[in-house]
Structures are given as C-alpha cells and as structure tokens.
C-alpha cells in the first residue's frame, strides 16, 4: 500500500526550456548518424546533473522527473524560523542553478534554459512501490501554488509564490513584483558592502 507523509516545506518546480528543439535536432542527427539518441541522453544527463547537484548541495531532495521538468523538496521542521531558512536556501540554490544553466549552449547549437518556481506550505508526499520501482507523488496547496508560479516564469527566471515571498528573508534578495501583484521574481541576491581598514574622504 502507498505510504503517505504530511509535511511542511519548500517545493521547487524546474522546467527545462529548449528541450523540444534539442530532441528534434538530435532526432534529425539520429537519422544521419547512429549515435544521435545516445548524444541526446548524454547532453540531458549532463545538464540535469548540474541542476540536481545544486539541489542536493543546498539540502534539497529531488522527488520526481517528469519529461523536461523536475520537482524538488526541502522539508521543514514546522517552525517559522526553519521554514524561512529553507526558503532562503532554495532561493540561493535557484540562483546558483541559473548562473550555471541559463543560456547553456549544447554541442548542436540549441540553447537550453530553465524556469524555476518556488512555493512553501503543506504538502502530501505519497510513496508508491518498493525498492527500485519506488517513486513519489507530491500534492497539496504548495504544489498548486508552485504550478501557478511557474506560469509566470520565463527561461532564466526564479518566481516565488506569494507565501514563499512573505516567508523568506526579504533583506537578502532583490525582488520584482509580477503584473498580477501576487507573484515575485527574484532579481538577485543583495551584495553586502565589505568594510575597509581605511576610509577615503572626498576632497
């Protein structure tokens, strides 16, 4: 029987843009060469590997791959402070992913990018199957919110749900509000000014 866990956490939806063009280009090459499909797999694994590596490095778990997209999760201990720290981690992770994976030129000239959406809230994690065949389904309000946020994302963008924006540390990042007045795009991380030993005064 499926096992169900109810969690509070941060949900990331990352959608690869350029995926269809890449597949079509490699399909054409496959008709001309015998290794087109193999090269497609290698390219996708390399690109997705960068995204997965960043997620794991920042404490997240990749739950599910769905075609040209993936779902990742940061599980909170349930208190406000921990949830805020996790949202901050997920935003920092998203910035790192965009720095590595935006405008990614493949060996066949197709440019790949990634659209990222983040939400926070209650979710239901359903564990289906056993051992090698095990997979996870994610549902709940936060999943609905991340899907809505993704609709506002363009390649290279990081979009926050309204609750994710309200619960993150807004002093750490730069934001732009979207046209709906509800979602927010992360414009970058704020850079702290470093203090110097001496101060130069204008003359």
UniProtKB/TrEMBL annotation:
<dbReference type="Pfam" id="PF00211">
    <property type="entry name" value="Guanylate_cyc"/>
</dbReference>
<keyword id="KW-0067">ATP-binding</keyword>
<dbReference type="GO" id="GO:0035556">
    <property type="term" value="P:intracellular signal transduction"/>
</dbReference>
<dbReference type="GO" id="GO:0005524">
    <property type="term" value="F:ATP binding"/>
</dbReference>
<dbReference type="InterPro" id="IPR029787">
    <property type="entry name" value="Nucleotide_cyclase"/>
</dbReference>
<feature type="domain" description="Guanylate cyclase">
    <location>
        <begin position="10"/>
        <end position="150"/>
    </location>
</feature>
<dbReference type="InterPro" id="IPR001054">
    <property type="entry name" value="A/G_cyclase"/>
</dbReference>
<keyword id="KW-0547">Nucleotide-binding</keyword>
<protein>
    <submittedName>
        <fullName>Soluble adenylyl cyclase</fullName>
    </submittedName>
</protein>
<dbReference type="GO" id="GO:0005737">
    <property type="term" value="C:cytoplasm"/>
</dbReference>
<dbReference type="GO" id="GO:0009190">
    <property type="term" value="P:cyclic nucleotide biosynthetic process"/>
</dbReference>
<dbReference type="GO" id="GO:0004016">
    <property type="term" value="F:adenylate cyclase activity"/>
</dbReference>
<keyword id="KW-0456">Lyase</keyword>
